[in-house]
Amino acid sequence: MSDVFISYSTKDENIAQFMHKHLMMEGVQTFLASVSIQSGKKWSVEILNNLKTSDWVFFLASKSACESPYVQQELGGALLTNKKIIPIVWDMEPSELPGWINQYQAINISGATIDQAKERVSEIAKKIKSDKLVGGLAVAALIGGLIWLCNK
User: What percent of the chain has pLDDT over 90?
Assistant: First the structure.
């Protein structure tokens, strides 16, 4: 199960690989279709399953991605299931994002150095890990409470 699903155009493979690599180095389980799907698996099923189970969606929002019907399907699924969506732009302004996604605060990495981009990934990774810890603690408290009630 992944924490983050990366939605991207295959034309942006280098940036997608960069995000995947650095999120994984930060300890965030990340799904990237080109890396995460094993040979022989049905890619459409794997993508759908990982989109369902991920809490976060990183939308690598290039002009190519905004035109991709596959990316549009992924984002539609993310919107319908209330995922935490982070658009990441570099070859367009955040204000140019399509109407269905421009309401989300974007990260603009246009002109960023590699180190600056790594720092942004690190900041997001910390937030994801923090949210995951809080959610895990809440579940543990709920289970503990149920066990306590059952033993009374």
Answer: 49
